[in-house]
Amino acid sequence: YGEGEYKPDERIDTPIIYTQTITRTTTILPTESPTPIDNVDDINDDTTTPDDNSDPGLSKDELVNLKYCKSKQCKFIFAYKHGEQESKAQMHFRSIVGLALRLNRTIVLPNVGGSRLGACLAHPFDYYYDMDGLRKQFPQLKFILLADFKKWTREREIPPTIKYVEINRERITRQNWVLDGYTNGTKLRKAACLGDCNPLLIPEEVPTTTIGLHNRWANTPKVMEEGHLLIINNTQTSAEFLLVKAHSFRLLFPTEA
C-alpha cells in the first residue's frame, strides 16, 4: 500500500482480557440531538488558538489544557477508525459526534484520505472538510484536529488518563451485553497510529469496555433506547482520553432520537 493509502482493517490480534460482566444504571445525559453533516468541504480555520493565561496558581498541565481546550480540564473522545467510504464514513462520524455531545467531550477529528476517515490516513480533517460548516451544523460541539491533540499529549507533564471502548452490533445475539477488561497497549497504539503521541499516553494494559448491541437494536424505539442507554452509561468515565472503535451498520444516535 502507498503512503496515506487506506489499508484493510486489521483487528488487534491480542484478545481483550475480560474481567467481569457488568450492569450500570447511570442516567443518560440530556443534550440537543445531533444534526447530520452534509456537503462539508474545504477548511481554512483552526479551533486551538492558545488561551494566554499566566495565573501562577495553575499547574503546568492546567495551562496546557487551557491552551488546547480553553478549560483547566480536557476530556477528549476519538474514534480512530471509521468503516467504509464517504457517506458511510460520515454516518459513523455522526455517531461519534452524537456521543461526544452527550458526554460533553471534545471530539478529536480524524485524518482523511481516499474518501475515508481514520487516524492512519495522510491528510488532516481540514484537507477535505469545512470547519466553519462543522461549527454551524454543530454549534455545541467542541473539536480539535488530530495533530493538535497529539501536541497536547506531548506537552503534558503528567500523561493523560485513557480508556478504550469498542461498540459492536451483534449479528446473532438478541441481547445487549457489556464486558470490562484490558487491551494490549502496544498493539492498540499501532492500530490507532498514536505512536507519535506522548509515549506514556497508552500504557501496557489499557482499561477496556466492550459493548455488544442487540442484533435488532435499531428496529424498535424500545430496543434502540436500551442501546442508547447502554452506550452512554458505559462510556461515562473520568479518563481524559476516551478512545473508541465502533462497528455499526446504523447511526448510533439518529437525528430523531
Characteristic key phrases:
257 residues, 11 strands, Rossmann fold, 6 helices, alpha/beta, single chain, disordered N terminus, 640_t:CDS:1, eight-stranded mixed sheet
Describe the structure.
It is a single chain. This protein has 257 residues and is α/β, with parallel strands linked by helices. It has a domain at 60-225 and 237-247: Rossmann fold, CATH 3.40.50. The protein contains 6 helices and 11 strands. It has helices spanning 60-69, 86-103, 131-137, 146-155, 185-191, 221-233; strands spanning 17-21, 76-79, 81-82, 106-109, 111-113, 116-118, 143-145, 162-169, 177-184, 205-213, 241-247. It is globular. The termini are far apart.
Rg value: 18 Å
Helix content: 25-40%
Total count of strands? 11
Order of helices and strands: EHEEHEEEHEHEEHEHE
| Count of helical regions | 6
Low-confidence stretches: 1-52
CATH class of the domain at 60-225 and 237-247: Alpha Beta
- The overall pLDDT, averaged over residues, is 79
SS class:
alpha/beta
CATH topology of the domain at 60-225 and 237-247: Rossmann fold
- Share in β-strands: 15-25%
Distance between the termini: 40 Å
Biased composition (Acidic residues): 39-54
Biased composition (Low complexity): 29-38
Region (Disordered): 29-59
Organism: Paraglomus occultum
